[in-house]
Amino acid sequence: MIQVLGRIPRSANPDVLVGFETADDAGVYRLDDQRALVQTVDFFTPIVDDPYDYGAIAAANSVSDIYAMGGTPLTALAVVCCPDHPEMLEVLAEIMVGGADTLQKAGVSLLGGHSVCDSEIKFGYAVTGLVHPEKFIANAGAQAGDALVLTKPLGMGIITTAVKRSLADPETVREAIRIMTTLNRAASEVMLSFRCHAATDVTGYGLLGHGCEIAEASNASLCFHSKTVPFLPAAYPLAEARVFPGLVAKTWRLLEKKSFIHPSVPEPLRNILLDPQTSGGLLMAVHPDDRDAMLAEMSRKGIAAAHIGEVQPAGEFRILVD
To answer: What is the model's pLDDT at position 7?
Structure first.
């Protein structure tokens, strides 16, 4: 995809404040001195068995990109791919009800959408929000010394892979669904109360992949402390058994030459750090003097945020894991 995007000419419009050049979570387009549009789109194949939960996860995942930019999501358009079989209509209805309920919780108005026939269900949303043109949080801007804070545990891709292989216990699945359907709205509100220099939500490229995007956009290096990164306990034995998505290996091939992972970090933990998340948490680069107050405020809001590393000056490697 990087090779493809590199061939697309960049917009010369000065009102395009964030385009696709830095692999950010959403585009930002200035309307006037006080308002800018934030726009994103995301959809994916089913990752859990229950149609309602799948729709709810898809909605939370789609609006998360707006929250990661510090914006307020306003409207959504559904993106639907579905087999042309009458028996699928009830399933699709449950998916869309789950999504609509979650959008309603986020205060987002569903305006419509578009559907096509396909061999496999795919579902998500294009979401539009608003942000102040001088106050959005991009993935560029991380500064040396910033603390890295993560607001949700990792392991969702591993757990959903285990679901597909009938290897996940019901309690773990319920917890994973709870996490994936939790909106990042409260975390975004806390983020905006402190000096956050850069942010992203952790999704398909995992913690290390999205961390690398921050590092490259900010011309910095990110050092993660592997022992402080939160993850679902069931993810580790599953990773030991090599139950994880194929995207883990693909992401590692892209990052290997840009990363140094200390030999003491076990391979299962490395794969958890690479695990693709759906509706993952926010990864933020926060002024070090604000770290403890932010973590305390996150805790008061019921968000299990963790300090997981620091931003360093750009070095030989974009990603360091100790």
So the answer is: 78
Query: Which residue stretches of 143-289 are H helix?
Result: 156-164, 170-180, 185-191, 206-218, 235-240, 247-255, 267-274
CB 162 within 8 A of CB 283: no
Is residue 209 within 8 A of residue 319, CB to CB? The reply is no
- Give tens-digit pLDDT for 159-213: 999 999 999 999 999 999 999 999 999 999 999 999 999 999 999 999 999 999 9
What predicted TM-score, i.e. pTM, was given to this entire model?
A: 0.95
Q: Distance between CA 228 and CA 245 in Å, rounded? A: 23
Helices (H) and strands (E) in the chain, counts: 11, 13
Non-local (6+) Cβ contacts of 314 within 8 A are: 215, 219, 220, 221
Average pLDDT of 25-54?
97
| 156 Cβ contact list (under 8 Å, min separation 6) | 176, 179, 180, 232, 275, 276, 277, 278, 279, 280
Q: Count CB neighbours of 55 within 10 A.
A: 28
User: What's the fold here for domain 2-131?
Assistant: 60s Ribosomal Protein L30; Chain: A; (3.30.1330)
SS3 118: coil
- Determine contact, residues 283/150, Cβ cutoff 8 Å: yes
Cα 143 → chain centroid: 21
Polymer length in residues for the chain: 322
Give the whole-angstrom CA distance, residue 52 versus residue 101. Answer: 9
pLDDT at 5: 66
pLDDT at 11: 77
Structural fold of domain 147-321? Phosphoribosyl-aminoimidazole Synthetase; Chain A, domain 2 (3.90.650)
